[in-house]
Design brief:
Helix content: 25-40%
Distance between the termini: 28 Å
Shape: globular
Strand content: 25-35%
Largest sheet: 5 strands, mixed
Strand order of the largest sheet: 1-5-4-3-2
Number of helices: 2
Length: 85
């Protein structure tokens, strides 16, 4: 699976603490194997983000993404629930 990172994702990722970055890297490894693994809590978003999905890094942080093509995923943003506003 190819994961592309948007400029917004890269900018948000740089601002995260080292602990959250480490957790995000571990969850990304799981995501690459199975995007719908139960530990990720992958879910479809609603409203203005209805074409997007998200998965949990921990109880507060999420990665918002979209399935671009068959084996290509675009990571759109990373952060707390504030990314949905």
């Amino acid at each position: 699976m190819l994961i592309r990172f948007s400029s917004r994702f890269r900018k948000s990722y740089k601002k995260l603490s080292g602990n959250i970055k480490n957790k995000a890297q571990e969850k990304e490894k799981i995501f690459r194997i199975n995007p719908f693994d139960a530990c990720l809590d992958t879910h479809k978003l609603h409203g203005k983000y209805k074409s997007y999905w998200a998965f949990a890094i921990d109880s507060q942080y999420r990665i918002m993404f979209i399935f671009a093509e068959s084996e290509i995923v675009d990571f759109i943003d990373i952060g707390t629930h504030e990314i949905y506003k």
